[in-house]
Amino acid sequence: MSFTILPWDTDFFNFNVARIDSGDTNDETLAALYSDNIRLAYFSSAHKVECRANEFYEIKLVDEKLTFAKKTSNVILSDKIISYAKEYPEEGLIQLAIRSGKYSRYNIDEKIRSEKFEELYRQWIIKSVSRELADEVLVYMENNIIAGFVTLGQKNNRADIGIIAVEEAFGRRGIGKALINAAEHYAAKKLSAIQVVTQGSNIAACKLYESCGFKAEEPAYFYHLWKKD
What we know:
By secondary structure, the chain is an alpha+beta fold. It folds into 2 domains: 3-64 and 220-227, no CATH class; 67-216, Gcn5-related N-acetyltransferase (GNAT) (Aminopeptidase, 3-Layer(aba) Sandwich). 30% of the residues lie in helices and 33% in strands. The protein contains 7 helices and 11 strands. It has helices at 7-13, 27-35, 91-100, 105-108, 114-129, 175-187, 203-211, and strands at 3-5, 17-20, 40-45, 57-71, 81-83, 136-142, 145-155, 158-166, 193-199, 215-216, 220-227. The longest helix is centred in the middle third of the chain and has 16 residues, at 114-129.
């Protein structure tokens, strides 16, 4: 089969969702998706593909993902950064996580309802705090207020930054860089490299990672294929 049905996504969205594995969106693949009643399919490519529509599906470019990576080294850890110890995130942390997804393909795609996008990021931070999706959650505290946070896991033998966000009211204070340094500090104890994946359209984030010594790798283009009504 040229695609894989995704149980978690299917359950979350309440309709059939799949990932195309063949690296092709030819008519035969689209016909197979249609016959299995796949309403939404994800497709990624190292190169841009033609966003054409056929009798079954509309194809839309929703994300250009960039992976930034570097070797870990000993960096200074700010004394304002601590490990988040609560078993469930407070509402301020949840809302900050949701706002961090501004450039997410689940927010960009207007066919996905805003409440589903928000619930996706809500679950992401909940499961990160419970250490189901992250090994560590670090928060930057300013006068007993969470000014920013970063989640850290592992992927492809690298430490992997999942979500990083700073409250707008605390912007331009170097908090983003302090959080990245904190992630690298913890990562260096176990792994020799660290990475973070972001959207190419998030210019501010790309500049931040470059300023911290990360180098961009080859981009990946993500597409959503929606079944025609």
